[in-house]
Each structure stands twice: as C-alpha cells, then as structure tokens.
Amino acid sequence: MFAQLFQRANCLLNQRNRHQLLATVLINLICISHGMGIGWLSPTLRKLQSTDSPLQFSVDVNEVSWVGSALGLGSVTGNIICGLLINRIGSRLCLLLIAVPHSCLWFLVYFAQSVKFLIVGRFLAGITGGGIYIIHPIFLSEISDANIRGTLASMVMLSVNFGILLGYIIGTHLAYYTIPFVVLLCPLSYFALILLFIRDSPMQLIREQRFAAAEKSFRYYKNIKDSDSLDKQALATLEFENIKMKLTNEDDMPDNVRLRDFFTPVAIKGYAMAGVIVIANQFSGLFTMVNYMSDIFAKSGSSMDPNTSSIIIGVVQILGAYVSTLLCDVCGRKILMQVSSAGVAMSLTAFGLFTHFTSIYDLSGWSWVPVALMSLDIFLGNIGLISCIFVLIVELFPMKIRARATSMAIVVCSSLVFLMLNIFPLCMEHWGLPATMWSCACITAVCFVCFSLFLKETKGKSMVED
C-alpha cells in the first residue's frame, strides 16, 4: 500500500519529487526564522510598554506603529532589491544574501539603546521578508512539477506561521537578552545548508545559456540518476529539451522584454486580479493582526491572558496553512480563495459585534468568544488569502514578464504591509476595535465577489506557458 502511495505523481515522497521537497524544506528555514522575528514582536511590545520593560526605555503608541510598520518599508526595499537581482545573479545567491539582514536584526535587538534600534532592526527583517516573498515563489515554480507546485509554494507561509508561533512562545517565556542567541541558530544553519544542497534552477541556467549546468540542475531536482532505466532518462532528456526550446525562443527571452509586453490582454487581466488578491491579503488585516495580536486581545474584552491567546492563534495559523498545502493542488486555488475571503469577512464582522457589545453589557462569562472568533478568522484566512497569494500571483502573469510583474505585485503588497502596520494601532486607538474590524470585513467581502466572478483556476498550469 505504501509503495503505491509513494508512486503517485502528487506524492511529495515520490522518487521524482524528493529533491524538490528537500529544497523546499531547506529554503524555508529562513521563513521560520523570519516568522520568529514577526511573532516575537507581539508579546515583546507589551513588555516594552509596561513599567517592567527589560530595556532602559519604553515606547508609546506612535513609536509602536513605527516599530511595527518598519517591517513593511523593509519589505518594499527587499522586493525591489531582489526583483532587480534575481535574473542577474541567480536565485541561489539571492537565497544566501537574504539571511544577512535578518541576522542583523537580532544584533540590534540585543544592543538596543533606544527605540530607533528596534525600528532599524525591523526594517532589516523586512528586507529579508521582502526577499523571501520574491525569491521563494519564483524559485519553487521553476524547480517543481505542476502537480505539486501549489503544495510546495504554500509551504512558504506554513513555515512563516510556524516561526510566528515559535516567536509568540519565546517572546512570552524567554528573557529578552536570551532570544537573539536562540534565533540566530536558524539563519546560520540555513546559510550553511543552502551552500551545500541548493543549486540554481534549470530555467535560470538556461536563460544564462549554461545548458550543461542547466541539465544537471534539472536532473538533480527531478531526482534522475545515471542508474535509472534508459526509458526514464530518455523521457527526462526530452522534457528538458522541450523546456530549453521554449526558453531559448527569441520572442520569449526575458532580455527581449518590450514595453508592449506589459500591456497585453493577458498581462492586464493578471494585474487586475493580482491587485484584488493583494488588497484582500492586506486589508483583511490578517497579517497586521498577527503583529498586534496581544494588543487586540487586551482590547477585546476577553479575560484570557493576551499572550496565551496569541499562542493559541499561532497554532491555528499553522493548521490553516497546513490545510492549504493539502488542498491547494486538489481543490484548486479559486475555491480556497472564495471560502477564505467569505469566512474572514463573516468572522471579522462577528468579532467586531462581540467587542462592541462588550462595552455595553457584561460578557465576562463569554471571554472565550474573542479567541474562538479570531481563531476562525485566522484559520480561514490561512487556507487561502495568506497561503495561496504567492502561488497565484506567480501563475497569473505571462512567462515573458513573470519575474518582473511578480516583483511589482509584491512591491505593492509590501507597501500595503507598511500602510496597514502603521495605521492599524492608530485605527484601534481612534476608531475603536469594532469599527476597525468591520472596515476590514467590508473590504474582504468585496474581494470575495471579485474572486467569484473573475478569478480563473490556475491549478496544473505549466510555467513555460502563458
């Protein structure tokens, strides 16, 4: 039975898929580390705003918004830098470089003398995050087979969410000055393993006219060995030659991109839907809430410990992202985006109603409700709006402009990250938590309508076709 299971084309442990899975796991170590940097902030900010601050300074609400939103500014910077570099120096070198700014974050955390150290550290962490969201989806789309591409690409957010949970836990239970030493093990291990086991993608090497290296890379990621049968090797050679022929077609070469290539009907439709996806991803508030989760629970009327509630949410995030990896290549992208956006809109509406009535009535006996509603919101958000975004955006654009258009879409997304992280604590302060939640719910509901009417299914789409 197990032998038949492993022989299925969409089984990650199938012989052909094993090196693709290994590469995904290794490059996602930096995603785990990045998530720890995100999750660590939530409990730590509450400590820094208290009289028991571990540092010699405290922060007010305006400084909180800048510490939080610096991640978004850094993400935009990382998007632009990696978008410019990935076709020039290759994905492998980019994967190595993104570990550097993240490592600097923890040195700044340890030696912080003012809130500016934390702002700069979060900015550098954002550069790594911005690089991840450009490099990982493109690299994985180029090394993975179509029938497992969605599963592997959605593991990016699963890894980030796992890191966020670890960040909640270590931020709550470990001493401030111990955390940097613990977390730095992750990027250091990542750097060493990328050097040892990761190669540039076959498509990248073909574009560089390094055909012998490209074929070796293709055979490595498809796990084709010299000892395999002649038929299997012949099929692999034919598959590689087809990819090579498509990518060396003069009209499709990335260096021959012209302005008109960005304004074809397919490209314009891709921009429009990518815009809706990015708006839903950010204005649903899902990522923003992760950064300010402890503050949200403190304002929600729940009597449960805010940090404990945040850890529960971290577990739910992982479950949601894991469900996405299971269903993305089975059910398809569209249905996951529909279910996710509809569920988030309803959950946020209900959360806003509860917090509204908490200020009017005594609902202390229902203190579990905010955690339950936020858990539902985060779970449903992660099965589609969070985990599928990078899968979909890569698949929406024509091959010729895919890297550039994906970079532009992620830059817009990162800009909205900065905006939301900056204004969200101010909205909670001036509008109140209910109105903030209802605003996010309305925008997500509109995006649900757009997904239902206009989003096309991209499951199984070839990465050498438009």
TrEMBL record:
Keywords: Cell membrane, Membrane, Sugar transport, Transmembrane, Transmembrane helix, Transport. It comes from the Eukaryota. Gene3D superfamilies: MFS general substrate transporter like domains. It holds the Pfam family Sugar_tr. The chain crosses the membrane at residues 21-41, 64-86, 93-113, 119-140, 152-170, 176-198, 270-290, 310-328, 335-354, 366-393, 405-424, 436-455. GO terms for cellular component: plasma membrane. It is found in: Cell membrane. InterPro entries: MFS_dom, MFS_ERD6/Tret1-like, MFS_sugar_transport-like, MFS_trans_sf, MFS_Trehalose_Transporter, Sugar_transporter_CS. Residues 23-459 form the Major facilitator superfamily (MFS) profile domain. It is a multi-pass membrane protein. PANTHER family: AT22075P-RELATED, PTHR48021. This is Major facilitator superfamily (MFS) profile domain-containing protein.
